[in-house]
Amino acid sequence: MNDLLVANSVSKSFGDFKALNQVSIAVPKGSIFGLLGPNGAGKTTLIRIINQITMPDEGAVLLDGQPLKPEHVRDIGYLPEERGLYKSMKVGEQCLYLAQLKGLTKTEAKARLKYWFDKLEIGDWWNKKIQELSKGQAQKIQFIVTVLHQPKLLIFDEPFSGFDPINANLIKDEILQLRDEGATVIFSTHRMESVEELCDHIALIHKSNKVLDGKLNDIKRQYKTNTFEVGLESLDRAKVISEIQDKFEVLPATFRNLNDDIKLNIKINEQTSPNDLLSFLTSKAQVHHFVEVIPSASDIFIQTVKNNQ
Amino acid sequence: MNHLPLIIKREYFTKVKNKSFIVMTFLSPLIMIALFAVVAYLSQLNNDKERTISILDDTGYLEEVFQNTEFTTYTNLNGLSLDDAIALVKEKEDYGLLYIGKASSLDDVSGNVKFYSEESPSLSVISGLELQIEKRLKEKKLELDGVSLAQIEASQTDIEIGQESFEGEKSSKIDNVVKLAFGGAAGYLLFMFIVIYGNMIMRSVIEEKTSRIIEVIISSVKPIQLMMGKIIGTSLAGITQFVIWVILGGVLLVVVSAIFGIDLTQVQTPQQEMMNQAMQADGTQAMAENLITAISNLPLTNLIIAFLFFFIGGYLLYSSLYAAIGAAVDNETDTQQFMLPILMPLILAVYVGVFTVIEDPHGTISTVFSFIPFTSPVVMLMRIPFGVPLWQQGLSLLLLIGTFIFAVWFAAKIYRVGILMYGKKPTYKELFKWLKY
User: Which domain of life is it from (chain A) (predicted)?
Assistant: First the structure.
């Protein structure tokens, strides 16, 4: 059993509106799983079903091979997109309360809070009220509360919103460390650069249906177009370009480079190997830049959504 | 996992530690007592004001009718002309002049009585004087017909109808007053409690929505647990506040009356004084005795037990609806349209209680309304002092509990969906749809 969380053909309707249609996902243990999709696709509904906030109409969700039951609340840490804290409650009291709701004893919670408060250097906030903190500071508290009970499964919905780049990085490192310590992470966001950086697996939900699913690298391989980005230096630009155009499919390219040289995207067919292309190019001009174009998560996202319109 | 105690504890302590709650708890009785002391003090000042009323009686019928009392002195100006008398009264700055003009017979007197004064006299003074004159004239007329004063006195009989039920249970008029007071107090207390603390629950639900903490919480606990925790925690805070009010109010009342030397039981206004004088005061002592018997005649055990059950049942029924409203809306201004259907039956219950139960505690209307769950707590509490058969109480309570369970189910549905809905104010139609989610 390598998947910590499995959702089997989960469907959910609100009145006439079908929020999820037969969606299945499998989240491998110890991975960071990106749950992507345009606004209103049904991500939040799926996350709420995993958290047992809403019940699915059809299908089942298994955590560690067992159907979800109320006790599983302890095994999940959830940072919702719509998040907040009791404004007039003191930081310490509030953290203790929320930790106890997750099943920690008071002494356990205190010890772990001390660890986190020291780690993030916020020990002097203990007696402050939430309303005295800045938004970013409150977010830090929210993050601690989410991970405090050391859940097997962590669900972060837009975890970086409200953080400055420094703190966003800090939280990102914490998430990676938690993963290394064995936690499994479901990560929902619209920021594709963080998907690129963090996720091992992704699933894309669009209009209530899952449209894409798998290892990020596999998906990228699937979506790659055998295109290479090249930068060449030659005295006779026009001749070189036309010679390349005769043999390959060519598009103009833009990238940053030190020389003002020929920048092209060259697509090769199945029979041609990258080496063939490279040796052809070296015979024609000076090669400064030769990179395979790998589709970004953002490209894949946009393309898939468009294809499924 | 049962988090209910934890939630109750948090709700209770956040309420109790809230500054405005503390201020309200300790300031309200102070304000009430201060107000009471001021009123008592002022009425005492009023009492101390002595007034002199001059009498000019040209008929001679009304000699010795007006006896001086502690605060009112009567001067007889007989023999003066009306103009002289007015001038004199004006000069002496008396309260006023009562003039009884010449009359040929006793029947003519009625049109000839006038009261002259600087300012318009108080209603109670005038009616007091009227009562005294009427009484004397009646006596005079009877005397003319040959009935002596002694006979008149002897003819006075005081009737009090002893009431007894077929089962031999005795009661009296004063009993009924006491029953009304107990029932009314219980019903009104429940009404106030529901309105004050129901609102508090609603606000606390809205607060969780606006601070966006709700989703964090319900990923740990079931919404219904959160809702029940809120209701119970807030109610406990409410009970705490009530108890403090009663204790503090009681202590302050004693202290204040000791300091200012106001005998609160003896605050008597001049008008009461004059009425008593005219109407032959009832034996106050006898009344006090009656009062004690009346209270001991009440079905006290029944009353207390029924009070607990109906109070809790009624309160929980309404507060779960308040919680549902809080969940359905985003801010307090949006609550108005949903408040009306809650307040209507409550107010109706109080009206039915006040107007119908007094008239006929076991009449059709009172009985019916003491069965309808939304009005039964208030109306039944008002009826019980008059003795309600146990089967009726039981049935009504059963209906109440049934409705309560239904209301909690209903509220929990709305609550569960509503707490995650942001943005727009739902319509009744949408609320109904939520039930099916």
Answer: Bacteria
Cβ–Cβ gap B436/A15 under 8 Å: yes
| Together in a domain, A71 and A32 | yes
Q: What is the pLDDT of residues B155-194, one digit of tens each?
A: 778 787 777 777 666 666 677 777 778 888 888 888 888 8
The CATH number of whichever domain residue B114 belongs to comes to 3.40.190.10
In the DSSP assignment, the letter for residue B163 is E
A89:B221 CB<8 A: no
Classify B251 in phi/psi space as left (phi over 0), alpha (psi -120 to 50) or beta.
Answer: alpha
Interface of A with B in 4-23 (CB under 8 A): 14-15
* A70 at interface of B, judged by CB pairs closer than 8 A: yes
Which of A71, A79, A86 is the mutation pick for testing B, counting most B CBs within 10 A?
A86
Contact between A88 and B18 using a beta-carbon 8 Å cutoff: yes
Residue span of the structural domain in which B388 resides? 171-250+294-434
Please list the residues that pair with A5 across neighbouring strands: A27, A63
What average pLDDT does this structure show over A70-78?
A: 90
Same domain? For A137 and A33 the reply is yes
B314 and B347: one domain?
Answer: yes
- B34 located within any domain: no
Assigned token pair, B430: 């949408």
Q: Structure pTM?
A: 0.74
pLDDT the model gives residue B280 = 44
Residue in B77, B90, B135, B144 with CA at minimum distance from that of residue B117: B90
Of B203, B253, B300, give the one whose Cα is nearest residue B34. Answer: B253
Query: What's the rounded Cα separation, in Å, for the pair B62 and B81?
Result: 17
pLDDT band per the 50, 70, 90 thresholds, residue B260: low
Whether B130 is covered by a domain: the verdict is yes
**pLDDT (tens digit, 9 = 90+) per residue, B87-136?**
888 888 788 888 888 877 777 777 788 888 888 887 878 888 888 888 88
Asked if residue A175 lies in contact with residue A185, where contact means CB atoms within 8 angstroms, the answer is yes
**Closest Cβ–Cβ partner in A80, A97, A102 for B215:** A80
Q: What are phi and psi of B66, to 5 degrees?
A: -90, 110
Q: Which of A172, A193, A221 finishes a domain?
A: A221
Residue A167, domain CATH: 3.40.50.300
Question: DSSP letter at A129?
Answer: B
Q: Is A306 inside a domain boundary? A: no
B325-338: buried (b, 16+ CB within 10 Å) or exposed (e) per residue?
bbbbbbeeeebeeb
Look up the domain containing A29 and give its range.
3-221
Q: CA nearest B437 in A: which residue?
A: A14
- Are residue A285 and residue A249 in the same domain, yes or no? yes
